Amino acid sequence: MPIDRKVARFNRRFANHLVGPLFSRLPGFGKVHHRGRKSGREFTTPVKLFRRGADIVITLPYGPGSDWVKNVLAAGGCEITTRGRRIQVTGPVVFTDDGTTKMPALTRRILSRVEATEFLALTPVRTSAPAARR
């Protein structure tokens, strides 16, 4: 059972504005930059994330029904700021952990307490290096 929607509303209105700027620079945290699918407005959402191979995996403690998740899925991607770098990502896929997903032990322990088992996986877009001058 994901975290109650009341907590999500509180975080969106108050807590995210306080911790968002700090979290995007810490290892294991970041900010998702996305555009509203109805309003077209730009939004940022602080998230907990980790690497799984080449992919970036974002925890979904409120479940996949959050507006920001719907926005990313509808757009087919977004940008993520983590450790001071902004990365374009694509191919969003929501999946449920069956207990075998490789993730940091602390992340697994925290998520198990709130029974959060759903994640969003995204693949970084490879940017081609500029052509060398001759």
Automatic annotation (TrEMBL):
Recorded protein name is: Nitroreductase family deazaflavin-dependent oxidoreductase
Please name the source species.
Streptomyces sp. R39
Q: Which GO terms describe its molecular function?
A: oxidoreductase activity
Query: Which residues constitute the signal peptide according to the record?
Result: none
Task: Output the superkingdom of the source species.
Answer: Bacteria
User: Which Pfam families does its entry note?
Assistant: F420H2_quin_red
Q: NCBIfam families from the xrefs?
A: hi_GC_TIGR00026
InterPro entries in the record, alphabetically? F420H2_quin_Rdtase, Split_barrel_FMN-bd
What Gene3D superfamilies does the database record attribute to this sequence? Answer: Electron Transport, Fmn-binding Protein, Chain A (2.30.110.10)
Please name the taxonomic classification of the source.
Bacteria, Bacillati, Actinomycetota, Actinomycetes, Kitasatosporales
